[in-house]
What does this fold into?
Amino acid sequence: MYDLIIVGGGPAGSSAGRTAGRLGLRALLLEKEVFPREKPCGGALSARALASLDFLLPPALQAQALTGARVCYRGRKVEAHLSAPYAFLVSRSDFDHFLLTEAEKAGIEIHQGEKVLGLCETDGSISVRTPVGVYRGRCALIAEGAQGHLKGRARRRETRAEQGFAIVTEIPVTQPQAGIAEIHFGMSRWGYGWIFPHAGYLSVGVGGLLPAMPRIRERLQVFLRENGLPETSRCRGHVIPMGGIRRNLVNGRIILCGDAAGFADPLSGEGIAYAIRSGQLAAEAVHRALSERIEALEEYEAACERAFGGELRDALFLARLVHRFPAAFHRLFSSHPRVVAAYLDVVAGIRSYRSFLAWALPRMPAYLALREICRPTPAKKI
Ligand SMILES: Cc1cc2nc3c(=O)[nH]c(=O)nc-3n(C[C@H](O)[C@H](O)[C@H](O)COP(=O)(O)OP(=O)(O)OC[C@H]3O[C@@H](n4cnc5c(N)ncnc54)[C@H](O)[C@@H]3O)c2cc1C
It folds into this structure.
């Protein structure tokens, strides 16, 4: 009997595993792939994400620091630079592998290449089924990412309108312009394209709201062509849940974290920071529940709310404004280096979305902002 069985070894599962091990829980982590595995991602690790790790990343993993950003929209280009890095570019396969190793160092058991087929709660414990056998745990943590189906044990799946979609490819280059991320608006009504200068290659991708991204592979090819880059069929992607929507995160002894819980920035698609933090909070909640009373598991939802719930809701508010008035906001974002720099502060975690909104909205035509504010969306739990 394990105290905790974790499904998935991405940033959410590994962070939960590391915290569980450090708290002395007997934990088993089941991961269907064998690491290092490929993971479609821009690889931008925000300074906020980095700060939530309780160990240092080896310098080689965070060698590419981003201090600048160039925003492009309809031929207009605006560039801003911060004095300190707001994000680091990492290889997701190396980064996730390192996180999993750190979890193992904390003393938990890890089975790679073992897919969880199903789980159920009976008689005060959870049975977790894999092709190898059935494991029993006092609690289970689902950290399967955006694509799995096990999260349905705790909450309903998102509708198409509540999801984003992003796709990415890597283009080898000899000398990328280090330190500057490029963001391109206008290639889709509700989305953006990115070019991130990793060491030896560019991460080039497009993403946006799922209903607004039909034929996304073709869009990526057009985006590559427009930027003088070679077209390629080697691209991968998947859905990204829209954070900021209230969801059930706990059902009995089952708890969700990371993408499985729906924790991703609805505007930028950033998810690693929330995966790490929610994984840590989930393991702490399990520790409390097992040492005090099982109902304490419910407090996990409140802990996530305190840590980043308000921030994700403010991001959703801004995302809905941007989706309603894309041209106005794309013009705003590409209007002045100060606007770009203010947004980079949000990515770095030194400015909140609320403070960004308070600063940026007065720079919008007033009636657009007012119309949206007067049309609040009910906070419904799903
Ligand atoms: C194209 C793209 C680009 C992105 N770029 C960025 C970016 O630059 N910065 C950023 O912060 N975020 C980015 N994101 C979002 C980010 O990748 C996710 O938010 C993040 O990976 C979530 O971490 P996670 O641990 O919850 O899930 P994942 O990283 O998806 O990990 C889930 C793990 O669970 C395993 N698993 C799944 N099902 C099972 C099962 N049944 N049994 C056992 N194991 C299972 C999977 O193999 C996987 O290893 C991007 C997303 C996409 C699609």
About this structure: The first helix runs from residue 11 to 22. The chain has three domains: 2-62+89-158+244-311, 160-241, 321-373. Residues 7-13, 30-33, 40-44, 115-116, 143-145, 148, 150, 166-168, 205, 237-238, 240, 258-260, 264, 269-272, 275 surround flavin-adenine dinucleotide (CB under 6 Å). Residues 321-373 form one domain.
